[in-house]
Specification:
Strand content of chain A: 15-25%
Radius of gyration of chain A: 20 Å
Strand order of the largest sheet of chain A: 1-8-3-6
Oligomer: homodimer
Structural class of chain A: alpha+beta
CATH class of the largest domain in chain A: Mainly Beta
Distance between the termini of chain A: 73 Å
Order of helices and strands of chain A: HHEEEEEEHEEHHHEHHEEH
CATH architecture of the largest domain in chain A: Sandwich
Chain lengths: ~250, ~250
Amino acid sequence: MPQSRTLNQEISLSVIKTACSNCNLRELCLPFGLSLEELERLDDLISTRRRIKRGDHLYRAGAPFDSIYAIRSGFFKTDVLLEDGREQVTGFQMAGELLGLDGISTESHTCNAIALEDSEICAIPFARLESLSREIHTLQHHFHKVMSREIVRDHGVMMLLGTMRAEERLAAFLLNLSQRFTARGFSHAEFYLRMTREEIGSYLGLKLETVSRAFSRFQEEGYIAVQQKHIRILDVNGLKALMNHRV
Amino acid sequence: MPQSRTLNQEISLSVIKTACSNCNLRELCLPFGLSLEELERLDDLISTRRRIKRGDHLYRAGAPFDSIYAIRSGFFKTDVLLEDGREQVTGFQMAGELLGLDGISTESHTCNAIALEDSEICAIPFARLESLSREIHTLQHHFHKVMSREIVRDHGVMMLLGTMRAEERLAAFLLNLSQRFTARGFSHAEFYLRMTREEIGSYLGLKLETVSRAFSRFQEEGYIAVQQKHIRILDVNGLKALMNHRV
DNA sequence: TTTCATGGTTGACATGGATCAAGCTAACGC
DNA sequence: GCGTTAGCTTGATCCATGTCAACCATGAAA
């Protein structure tokens, strides 16, 4: 049956493409620093790949934890909800970054992960990752680094929320995005925001109007060009200067 | 020489007391869940114990990382400094908690850890911890849980800084301290603050005057009794209610 | 093409917390 | 016991950001 043979070929092709060893994000992601042989062992572990449509949840707060997720493509936000409806966006994640580390602690997720555009993720069963990282020193160490980096990142956000004023926060936010896009081979100066002003505001501890005004102000000052979600950075140093001096 | 024999006895006694297997914090700390035999292997690893005087640094931002630290007794703060002098306190740590996880990511510390009272810590060489946790599954898993708990805690602080008003922040802070003191067998209703109003303020993203006013207000409302650093919680539910309703 | 809905911008005004300033308390060294 | 100092409290005032409201832009659905 030629039809089913074609189907099989397609499947095996897609399986090859899924593997970490063929993934162009491997230097940003969990496989960083692994040898070819080690990479193949990691491939065995990452069997599930899932598409998440824009607006859908990858997981919800309270759901049982069993895997962490590597973003293969797309864009996510994570948030925590208070009973009274207040939302805090705790982060925005892009390709090559890991989601779900919060779930290890209590064996259930403590935040929501929501796709901000159609995305694709690799599910990594956590028990198997622990088991493999008992065998592969490099993997173990790199995983620890990734968790630690998350802690350091969070401290940066605490700094931002605790001591910076509105425009400093937004400048820091834009510079951080720019730097992460650059690391992924995209333009450092021009990108589309995947999130709304309200989501940016929630992340930065500001109201959406304040975010909007700060964007307008940056545009007036010639630091950036904004058109809705399209951002062009015209003066990186201007933005950086904003953050360093007390105004 | 009887004198030196006494000295030796004292030393070996103190060594025994240092071991995780004899530590009354073991259920709160890294050894959680280990068998007796596993505990002894962990003991071998934790050779260094250090006293840190009030006001001294356990480590500084930028210092090379090689160990994490378990607090045996005392009280610490961690903070991040911006070039322009702004300080963000990123946490307060007490007995049984781990310090230094931030250093794993870049192999150098990213914050300062400062003793708020005379303290004692156990240094845990990180390379050896990784190596041992490759052999002891329970240790590995528990360590991952501790790191993940730190991430979850940080998300809680982000929520606090991003969406709560001054009095909610302080109420959350007091309830958190109370709960952690309770877990260590101290009174949940009465304790001494080890940090100044300014340090509380830095942690909560507020100025010291605002912290002071909020304390006074809580006292007027009958939620707590404050006398400088001495706190008595009189109405836990009052404090909790403060956090749940939008005022 | 028009309509509708969602998200963004801008203005006018309100306010929570910052800032500035004065005085108070408690602990510690002499 | 006394003076000094760091830390705390409280009051008066100010301002950055929140709130409320109107309007605009864009894209999807009809």
